[in-house]
């Protein structure tokens, strides 16, 4: 357990972002920005039809075009050994419009694009499945995952005083990190090197090694910075493998950067959901039944389920429960993880249904949630490692001024604006994976931390510098962190809000071991003032090593670490450690919690919604860094605004393409869309979960946010919109 004095905690929470200077000065290099000699440019050619076969690709004219090095198609692509669920030209089948069907490599990007336009492609088209609503009869259970049941749902429902039975729908969304996916790949004999924008360098290394049948050690992946991921960069998509394939064909390094429209289809989406929710309650608000049945689209490539109903199994207590997931196969690109996959969409349905139930019960929405508070994990009755959701409702409610809310709809008017207040619960699981790290104390007194994880902009560099600084009691400015390189000790992917909770303890353990080695060096050094002292009695602080029990750190009891290392060969002291998962981890459930309150103003004439305030309090264990941590939560809440009001990938049900595959028409919130945001964290450590007491923080911010806004819109207008996003046209009816 790390027992940090409050003063020291405050100090490091004020710490700056480790990578801020590199980023604002442009020194931070992203995958596509690395200078690689003789690099050629790849352009992916995408299928124009949603279903069928590529019959032929006539590349005669394209091959003769200016600057063209090579053209890889399904008809000349090398056979790869083992594939994930990606389309890498191994056959001519087309499963969605936008699927990669060729790669053109040329001296420059414009030349590659111009040559691509000269390809003469013929297809044999087949009937495509594109209309989700019209194909609901095709819904089937997914190949994995799905349903759960507790108690006797029918009997519980029969006892109900009040019932809600409604359907909620959320649209397809696409990830739009600032930095699109990008890969530079080159071969030296059978060794493959790539710069790749990813949330998991190890995953990229594994996938490439498998695809090209080479040892993992022959693949080197680097990704020092990722310009946002949100889940889409947690999977190895076709372009990464195609870049390596094209580099082989062109016999030179190939750079492949996805163009913005290519972000809509080939690199995953958040599937739509159609959530049927039935809540049955007794007159006192106690839930008798929670039934949550969700249907989403899946691709023809592979099943991917937006598991919207999963959180319903653990969020509230109820006598009975029934959840299920079904999928409707469509000719669209694959679904994948998108920030809080499952919880983001599922909390939209469940948290609005609870608002509807509260109204029918004539109960305060917060009170309804407290009545059904899950003291234990309802699934197997395990205790929570730490849960302080009650305090979240209380703190956020107080900061928001919830007690002044008028329950009746349409009562609060300011000028031409209808004002409304709503709330919802936020929740997300807490996981961690084993992770290794190396820590080196250098002869110049600086500390080096190396770990094979990556920072997608969340603050991983910053918190790891902090962890090492804390372990040695030195200024974080004395720590150098290297990430994003597969030659560093292995770590898991940056996803599922697991990174900080996984890599933080690894660095802390490695630092502790390095410090012990340093102490042993001092104890065994006849010239050291600490000679003969037990290593456990030795401490480090501000670049000096000293006797822990000594009151002072005078020359007789301490010395500079640089002096100790200089006398002992001038070489670094180094330790590698792998963080252990806690032994009793199966005896409890770790989960993060929060409460979100929203205030909206709806224009009575235009029905435009403005989110004036979001106030949220989270129980995420220890807040490792105020700046980067709070930023994650604010970012999630902002995305909640987008989810509530703006975001939707519109599918053309004839041609199967996303109609609005650009930033002008796929609306994400901009600063002008965002009102006041007030985020606080309880900062209560969860030491049963890990030695830092910190659970994940990257995803919980989006959960509940869209529902809180929807509930506020209802409170303002009396119009219950169950179909997202809530655009003005839906409020006019
Ligand atoms: Mo996240 S959706 O696990 O990157």
Question: What does the secondary structure layout of this molecule look like, with pairings?
Answer:
Elements: H1 6-13, H2 20-24, E1 40-46, E2 52-58, H3 60-64, E3 68-72, E4 93-94, E5 100-106, H4 109-116, E6 120-125, E7 148-150, H5 153-158, E8 162-170, E9 182-188, E10 191-196, H6 201-211, E11 219-222, H7 238-250, E12 254-257, E13 273-281, E14 287-299, E15 320-330, H8 343-361, H9 365-371, H10 389-400, E16 413-414, E17 417-429, E18 436-441, E19 447-450, H11 460-472, E20 479-482, H12 499-523, E21 538-541, E22 544-547, E23 558-560, H13 561-567, E24 573-578, E25 591-603, E26 609-619, H14 626-645, E27 674-681, H15 705-717, H16 728-732
Parallel strand pairs: 1-12, 10-11, 14-15, 19-20, 26-27
Antiparallel strand pairs: 1-5, 2-4, 2-6, 3-5, 7-15, 8-13, 9-10, 9-12, 13-14, 16-17, 17-25, 18-19, 18-24, 21-22, 22-23, 25-26
Helix pairs in contact: 8-15, 11-12, 14-15
Question: Going by CATH, what is the homologous superfamily of the largest domain?
Answer: Aldehyde oxidase/xanthine dehydrogenase, molybdopterin binding domain
Number of helices: 16
Helix-residue proportion: 10-25%
Which cofactors or ions or other ligands sit in this model? dioxothiomolybdenum(VI) ion
Kindly provide the name of the CATH class of the largest domain. Answer: Alpha Beta
Architecture of the largest domain in CATH? 2-Layer Sandwich
Question: How would you characterize this protein structure?
Answer:
The protein is of the alpha+beta class. The protein has three domains: 6-23 and 433-580, 2-Layer Sandwich (Aldehyde Oxidoreductase, domain 4), CATH 3.30.365.10; 38-127 and 175-263, 2-Layer Sandwich (Aldehyde Oxidoreductase, domain 4); 273-431 and 586-732, Aldehyde Oxidoreductase, domain 4 (2-Layer Sandwich), CATH 3.30.365. The protein is built from 16 helices and 27 strands. A seven-stranded mixed sheet has the order 3-5-1-12-9-10-11, with helices on both faces. It has a five-stranded mixed sheet with strand order 7-15-14-13-8. Strand 10 (191-196), helix 6 (201-211) and strand 11 form a beta-alpha-beta unit. The protein is globular and about 80 Å long. Dioxothiomolybdenum(VI) ion binds next to loops.
């Amino acid at each position: 357990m790390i027992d940090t004095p409050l003063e020291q905690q405050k100090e490091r929470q004020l710490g700056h972002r480790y990578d801020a200077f590199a980023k604002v000065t442009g020194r931070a290099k992203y995958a596509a920005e690395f200078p690689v000699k003789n690099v050629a440019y790849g352009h992916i050619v995408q299928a124009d039809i949603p279903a069928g076969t590529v019959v032929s690709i006539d590349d005669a004219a394209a091959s003769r075009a200016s600057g063209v090095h090579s053209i890889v198609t399904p008809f000349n692509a090398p056979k790869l050994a083992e594939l994930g669920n990606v389309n890498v030209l191994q056959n001519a089948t087309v499963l969605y419009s936008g699927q990669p069907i060729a790669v053109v490599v040329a001296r420059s990007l414009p030349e590659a694009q111009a040559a691509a336009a000269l390809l003469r492609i013929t297809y044999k088209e087949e009937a495509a499945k594109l209309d989700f609503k019209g194909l609901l009869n095709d819904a089937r259970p997914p190949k994995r995952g799905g349903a759960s049941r507790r108690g006797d749902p029918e009997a519980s429902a029969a006892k109900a005083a009040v019932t809600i039975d409604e359907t909620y729908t959320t649209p397809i969304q696409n990830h739009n990190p600032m930095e699109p996916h990008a890969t530079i790949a080159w071969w030296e004999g059978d060794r493959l090197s790539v710069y790749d924008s990813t949330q998991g360098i190890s995953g990229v290394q594994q996938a490439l090694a498998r695809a090209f049948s080479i040892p993992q050690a022959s693949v080197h992946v680097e990704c020092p910075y990722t310009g946002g991921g949100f889940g889409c960069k947690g999977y190895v998509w076709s372009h990464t493998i195609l870049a390596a394939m094209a580099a082989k064909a062109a016999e030179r390094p190939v750079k492949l950067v996805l163009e913005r429209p290519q972000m809509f289809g080939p690199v995953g989406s958040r599937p739509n959901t159609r959530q049927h929710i039935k809540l049955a309650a007794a007159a006192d608000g106690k839930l008798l039944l929670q039934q949550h049945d969700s249907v989403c689209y899946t691709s023809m490539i592979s099943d991917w389920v937006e598991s919207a109903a999963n959180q319903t199994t653990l969020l509230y207590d109820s006598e009975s429960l029934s959840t299920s997931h079904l999928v409707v196969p469509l000719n669209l690109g694959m679904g994948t993880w998108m920030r809080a996959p499952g919880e983001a969409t599922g909390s939209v349905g469940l948290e609005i249904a609870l608002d509807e139930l509260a109204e029918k019960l004539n109960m305060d929405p917060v009170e309804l949630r407290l009545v059904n508070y899950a003291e234990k994990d309802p699934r197997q009755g395990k205790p929570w490692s730490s849960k302080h959701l009650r305090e979240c409702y209380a703190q956020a409610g107080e900061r928001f001024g919830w007690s002044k809310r008028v329950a009746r709809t349409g009562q609060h008017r300011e000028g031409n604006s209808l004002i409304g207040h709503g709330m919802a619960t936020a929740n997300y699981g807490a996981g961690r994976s084993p992770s290794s790290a190396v820590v080196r104390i250098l002869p110049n007194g600086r500390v080096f931390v190396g770990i094979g994880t990556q920072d997608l902009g969340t603050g991983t560099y910053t918190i790891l510098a902090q962890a090492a600084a804390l372990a040695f009691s030195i200024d974080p400015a004395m720590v150098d962190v290297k990430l994003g390189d597969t030659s560093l000790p292995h770590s898991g992917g940056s996803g599922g809000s697991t990174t900080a909770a996984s890599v933080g303890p690894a660095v802390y353990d490695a630092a502790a071991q390095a410090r012990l080695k340093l102490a042993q060096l001092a104890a065994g050094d006849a010239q050291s003032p600490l000679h003969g002292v037990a290593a456990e009695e030795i401490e480090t602080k501000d670049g000096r090593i000293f006797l822990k029990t000594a009151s002072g750190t005078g020359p007789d009891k301490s010395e500079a670490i640089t002096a100790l290392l200089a006398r002992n060969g001038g070489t670094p002291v180094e330790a590698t450690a792998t963080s252990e998962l806690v032994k009793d981890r199966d005896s409890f459930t770790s989960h993060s919690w929060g409460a979100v309150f929203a205030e909206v103003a709806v224009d009575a004439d235009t029905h435009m919604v403005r989110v004036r305030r979001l106030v949220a309090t989270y129980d995420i264990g220890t807040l490792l860094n105020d700046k980067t941590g709070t930023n994650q939560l604010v970012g999630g809440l902002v995305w909640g605004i987008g989810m509530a009001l703006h975001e939707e990938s519109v599918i053309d049900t004839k041609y199967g393409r996303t109609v609005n595959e650009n930033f002008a028409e796929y609306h994400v919130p901009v600063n002008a869309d965002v009102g006041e945001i007030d985020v606080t964290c309880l900062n209560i450590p969860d030491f049963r979960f890990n030695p830092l007491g910190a659970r994940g923080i990257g995803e919980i911010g989006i959960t509940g946010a869209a529902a809180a806004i929807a509930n506020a819109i209802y409170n303002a207008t009396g119009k219950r919109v169950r179909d997202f996003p809530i655009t003005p046209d839906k409020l006019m009816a």
